Structure formats: C-alpha cells, structure tokens
C-alpha cells in the first residue's frame, strides 16, 4: 500500500503511476461487469485517455475530463443520457478506487 | 615531467569526448531519436510489456517534435491504458527535449470493444537494445 503524499501527487505520473493504473483498472472492471461493455470500453479509450485525476484535499479526488466528453465517443450506439449516466458512474468509481488504493477516507 | 605528460595525454581524450557529445546532440538522427524514445518507453513503462501489450512509434516528426505512440495488444481496452497514455505524454515531453508533443492511443479511437487492431502494429520497441534491459528497479505490475 502506497503511503499517500499530496505533494508527491503533483507529480503523480512519476510517483504514483502504478497506483493510478490500478485504480483505473479496478474501476474499469467494476464498470465492465455492470454496464454495457462496448460503452465502457469506449469511455475508457476515448474519454478517459484524456482524463487527469487531481487531489483536492480532505480525502477527495477530482477526475478532470476532456471538453465535450460525449462528443468524443464514436463507434457505439448510445443515447446521450445513458452515456452521461454511465460516465458519471465511471468517474465516481475511479474516485472511490483512488481513495481505496491510497487507503484514505473522504472527510 | 611524467606527470605533465600524463595530464597532457588526458586532455585530448576529454576534449574528444566533449566534441563527440556535442556533435551527437546536434546531429541526432531520426534513428537515434527513435531508439531514445523506445528506450525511454521500455525503461519507464515496463508494465506495458508485462501486461502483454506493446508500444510502437508510428510517426515521428523531427521538425515539429511530434511523435505518435501506439499502444497495442492487451493495452487495447484493459482499463490501464488511460493513465499509461497520460504518463507517457507528460513524462516524454519532460525527459526527451526533442519531443514537444506526444500523441498516444490504442488504435481504438473510432472503434469499440470489437476492434482489436493490435495485430497490425509493428513489433514493440523497434531498435531495441539491451544496454539496460532488466537493470531498473521497475515497479512490479499492479496485477
């Protein structure tokens, strides 16, 4: 278990890449089991590939998404509402997995 | 006398090394840069291969400093690649001065689950050398 240091998280891709990959991977697996697999793959590959997690303090993480995330998804037939709901759930899952991987509780 | 001679003998060697290193920076060929990028990926992102994935340099523009890295094989839709891609983009521009922009994807931009196009990629890490293979304290794969 990595000990979390908010300052080191500023340089997260050097210090915490393994933890970030683990958190995203776990979130992906949870989502893939529960939702439309094609949509989950599309979100993973076409939206989250431009996402960036930030630590906000008090145990909270924020996942910044690229602009117009829904417009980035191609190759999957999905209505916007379903896409948005799935994406919101996915982001929540990533935030939860980030807390879990760093063993910190939201306060 | 002998000490002076020894010092004199050292100087040209150092001078030559300096000239060589300066020249290599100025005249870095595309092949040199490709090899540097491949080594950078292998050294810093061993998890790509550990997970059965591959990373290949698809395009390199020496003038604009743009490179396109394709992640293939198991990387296509494994849930890990978003952070790996972001890390490659962030670190490569910091650590390789000739590179200003990194495009990285898994070849699934317009596809979905079914478009496993990893098979049409070139082999991972072309121009691979073994100078530091396995010599890093690279992190273990997270899974």
Explain how this protein is built:
The complex is a heterodimer of chains A (107) and B (143). Chain A has 107 residues and is mainly α. In chain A, 58% of the residues lie in helices and 10% in strands. In chain A, strand 1 (52-57) and strand 2 (60-64) form a beta hairpin. The longest helix of chain A has 22 residues, at 80-101. Chain A is elongated and about 40 Å long. In chain B, 31% of the residues are buried. The radius of gyration of chain B is 20 Å and the shape is globular. The N and C termini of chain B lie far apart (64 Å). Chain B is built from 4 helices and 3 strands. The interface between A and B is medium-sized, with 30 and 30 residues.
Topology of this protein?
The complex is a heterodimer of chains A (107) and B (143).
Chain A: H1 6-9, H2 12-15, H3 17-34, H4 37-46, E1 52-57, E2 60-64, H5 69-72, H6 80-101
Antiparallel strand pairs in A: 1-2
Chain B: H1 2-26, H2 30-44, H3 46-50, E1 53-61, E2 66-73, H4 81-95, E3 101-105
